[in-house]
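Entry 14. Structure prediction run on the chain below.
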Amino acid sequence: MKPDVVSTSAPRAGAAVDPAVGGRGLVGVYLSVHTPRYCTYEAAFAGKLAHPDFKGVRDGLVAQGRHLATLAPDLVVINSCHLISTFPTVVDGTPRHRGVLTAQEAPELIHGVAYDFPGDFDFASALIDRGRASGLPCTLANDVHYPLDYGTVMPLVCYLDRAQRVPAVPVSVCLSAGLEESFAWGRHVAATAAALDRRAVFVASGSVSHKLVRGPERWPAPADQALDHRFARLLAEGDYDKAWAWLPEYVDAAEPEMGGRHLAMMLGALVETGRRFEAATHGYGPSSGSGNYVISMAI
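Output returned:
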């Protein structure tokens, strides 16, 4: 089944956005990809792909990095499906994220990747305060030894911020948190960005349909692709409330990564702003039976 990619207007690649015109608070939202065969040095920097069907998503990630650069954010909040906590949501406020990553899941693909990018302790602390005030279990991490996962590091290092200059605040996916709690965290991200006058973007790092099988080149079933495309259309049309209302049904049918928690957090961030974002759908493609969308949204 061929991908049904929907595009709407977006900032022109290479054209910097004047922050005074674009405003502050949450100015961009990204559905991004961290699957290892897209997020290796070879794929990102040399364009060496394991299968021709990976080209659409890989090229889409390059375009997404250019899109993010046009927004000139002063903060990236990233929610990765591989930064997993059990009982509390963890917000990482470490002032400097520095380390060397070898992915436990795929050491043959991602190994010895050095990363070194700034954090934002003030934002992370304020986000935790907001979460605690609303009764959500959460923990603030401020520890140079706190390990980051490849779903956090690889999209940033390979595509979204290759220069590693924009402060980043990683937020975990919590196994004990359902869709409602994840949605609430997304709202808190947007509200914190507005309260602190940060020009922030939010990244949901994970797949859409996620019924994994062996064979990296294998696509999702046609029915699951159709569900993925319906979700993407709702984002493109700015129907965030409709997408949120449909999310439990979509999760049951398509089984998105980590139960769709990253999608719920993304929708919470979008809904909280009360604004419609212009969407650009850069690509859709397979990885071991999963569906992977690359979508950028900006005010």
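DSSP finds nine helices and ten strands in the chain.
Filed with the rest of this week's runs.
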